[in-house]
Amino acid sequence: MTQARPETLCAWRSSSSSPFPRAMLATLVTFVLSPSAARAESPAPAPSPPAEAKATTAPRRVEVRLSLSRAAAEALGGESRVRRLLEIELDDTGTLAPGPSGPLGDDVGHVWIDLPSPSEVLIEARLAERAAARRFLLIGGLNPDVAARLVAIAANELVRAQARPLRPRKAPAPRTPTPKELELAARRAPAIVWSAAPSFAFLPGSSGTLWGAGASLGFRGAGVSERATARWLTGPTSAGPTRWFEVGLAVDYRVYLGSSVRLALGADAALGFLHLGDARATDGILGARDAWSGRAGGLLGVDVRAFGPAWLGLHVSPGAILRPTRFETAGGLGGTVEGLWLGVDLALQLEHPLARSVLTNPR
Fold first, then answer.
1. Residue 273 backbone dihedrals phi, psi, to 5 degrees
2. Which CATH number, 3.10.690.10, 3.30.2310.20, 2.40.160.20, 3.40.50.300, labels domain 186-360?
3. Source organism's superkingdom (predicted)?
4. Its pTM surpasses 0.85
5. Half-sphere exposure of 240 (CA within 13 A, CB side)
6. 54-103 confidence digits (pLDDT tens)
7. pLDDT at 185 > cutoff 80
8. What are the residue ranges of helices labelled H in 34-133?
């Protein structure tokens, strides 16, 4: 408040020659001494923020329900003391409920205090559906008052940690498969397999050597290949110029010794058709030169990767002729096409995977 000095007022009163009338002087003194003038000179208080802004910045309030075991209450000086200390600690976190029970809610927390051993206190806290937090405190040698304060501080920290907002989990970045994983997936991926090969066959029982070409087409899955095969062979035997055409089936399994080397183990069987050029009779039929036969045997091979899906292989198929073919030549000599069969193929194989997604995601 602004006050006028007495000497100033006296000077105004004693001045009889002042041109101002007495009424105007009284008005000026009243305005100076009035408290409203002081209020006008003081700065106006800042406007308070709206209630909605306060609500958005206010921390999350939690209703805490406390439960103590009988042993813990006795070691900490009584349940009422622990409740009072915890209520003080929860001043900026939440409020302490009057009892341990009540309706459920997202802002309801439970605190359990137990005494597993005479020198150790267990504190557990859980908020809504979150995982329970646990802490152990050693209170050996402490008086109940100090122990109760430590327990209240620890319980408040657990409740505060539970009340913090959960951070959204980041989705894991897609993992790029390694070259080894891609190789393993490619070995077991379904694929169409076809091959072409120069082919040779040795018939020791008929003193024959045949040569020609072979081809196959099949399906491979989980390392096992099932193929349909065909061969066209020709060459000299004891029956003269001989032609052999066959169609058959082969099954093999690939054992990888490395990324570019593998073994082939399997079996094959075929139905063959013979043409004996110098035969006068075949199977007792005069003038017949054609007959049918068959063979079966194993399959052993080594494949080496040429490039990408292409493999070069050396395959050996030892076996035997299943149906002997008797013949008689024009000179009266007789014989039989029978006995062992040893086939050799130099194959070029191409594999076309059917499932590209398996190669990009081996899992």
1. -125, 125
2. 2.40.160.20
3. Bacteria
4. no
5. 17
6. 444 445 677 888 888 888 888 888 888 888 888 888 877 778 888 777 77
7. no
8. 35-41, 51-57, 70-75, 79-89
